[in-house]
Write a structure and sequence with these properties.
Elements (H helix, E strand, L loop, with lengths): L1 H20 L7 H8 L5 E5 L2 E9 L7 E4 L10 H7 L4 E5 L17 H15 L4 E6 L1 H12 L5 E7 L13 H5 L3 H6 L6 H11 L8 H11 L4 H11 L16 E6 L7 H10 L4 E5 L6 H4 L1 H12 L3
Parallel strand pairs: 3-4, 3-5, 5-6, 6-7, 7-8
Antiparallel strand pairs: 1-2, 2-4
């Protein structure tokens, strides 16, 4: 009995120590915006949310490029592409509902249908009648689902970057994503967040882990602790799982570029081949040495492929 009491007490002390060491309560968007939303960032009201976006480049572009980030990311993931493209095109990027500085939806709903409705409202608000939709991971799924939902005249092309859509069997899942789906642990993570977990998750999705810098970890950490985002992540996984509706990918009839990191262990390269098979006339480019976010890991080489594609549509 004494031994059991000692184990319980020691476990409790370890737990208390962990909570103290990793204490990370939610932070208000106004506080985070000082660092992460300088000009040209702005906030616009869409679907009852103050949506963080950046709208840059050539204003008279008839088909702006709209960039959609993946789960737990933000519009900053596209910095390199904007630098490469904005001199020739209008480039719009946005923090999707539940992520970045935009934060949670008013009603806590994160189905694909809600994201598609949001995209339609966003494009209408910005007066964008025709665009090229580009998305990474979950943002890629939102891109192709939106393309299917909109009038064909509104979507000039698609760029799918390690996109979600098919039933998923990952080779390796970032620890933060696993925790968000385990009830006891996800509750604990609402008030704690080890920086090491963020770094480990980023190293997991990069092909070259040495490219994961302190600044990159800072950004993902801050976007995670934005007020409401951790609960939104839990709900996103529950309400918008991978796989349902993938049969409709065959219905896509827009020029499509598929970009993939060869070393992606979250959504493996076999999914790139599935998209290439199912999207008629699509072009596939696979990047050796890159992982799940190739646009962030090597923006120069990936943006070059995008420029070539844009010149054909």
């Amino acid at each position: 009995m004494k031994r059991l009491s000692f184990v319980v007490a020691a476990t409790a002390l370890l737990l208390v120590g962990f909570v103290i060491a990793t204490w990370a309560p939610d932070r208000p968007v106004a506080e985070l915006a000082v660092r992460w939303a300088p000009a040209p960032s702005r906030f616009i009201e869409v679907e009852g949310m103050q949506v963080h976006l950046r709208d840059e480049g050539v204003r008279e572009d008839p088909s702006p490029i709209v960039l959609l980030h993946g789960t737990s990311s933000s519009l900053h993931t596209w910095d390199g592409w904007v630098a490469a493209l904005a001199g020739e095109r209008r480039v719009i990027r946005v923090d999707l509902p539940g992520f970045g500085l935009t934060g949670p939806t008013p009603d806590g709903v994160y189905t694909i249908a809600i994201y598609v409705r949001f995209m339609r409202a966003l494009l209408d608000h910005l007066g964008v009648d025709r665009c090229v939709l580009a998305g990474n991971s979950f943002g890629g799924q939102i891109a192709w689902e939106t393309a299917l939902a909109l009038s064909p005249s509104r979507v000039a092309g698609l760029v799918l970057v390690d996109a979600a859509g098919y039933p998923l069997e990952s080779e390796s899942v970032p620890v933060a994503f696993r925790i968000a789906q385990v009830p006891v642990l996800r509750d604990l993570m609402q008030v704690t967040l080890p920086r090491g977990m963020i770094e480990s998750s980023l190293r997991n999705v990069y092909g070259d882990a040495s490219k994961v810098t302190r600044g990159l970890v800072d950004r993902y950490f801050d976007m995670t602790v934005r007020e409401g985002n951790r609960e939104a992540l839990v709900q996103r996984f529950q309400q918008a799982p991978h796989g349902p509706g993938f049969e409709r990918i065959r219905e896509l009839r827009v020029p499509t570029l598929i970009l993939w990191g060869e070393l992606d262990r979250l959504i493996p390269r076999t999914h790139a081949e599935l998209f290439h098979r199912d999207v008629a006339g699509s072009r596939l480019v696979v990047f050796p040495g890159l992982g799940h976010t190739p646009h962030e890991e090597d923006p120069a080489v990936t943006a070059r492929a995008v420029k070539e594609f844009l010149g054909t549509i």
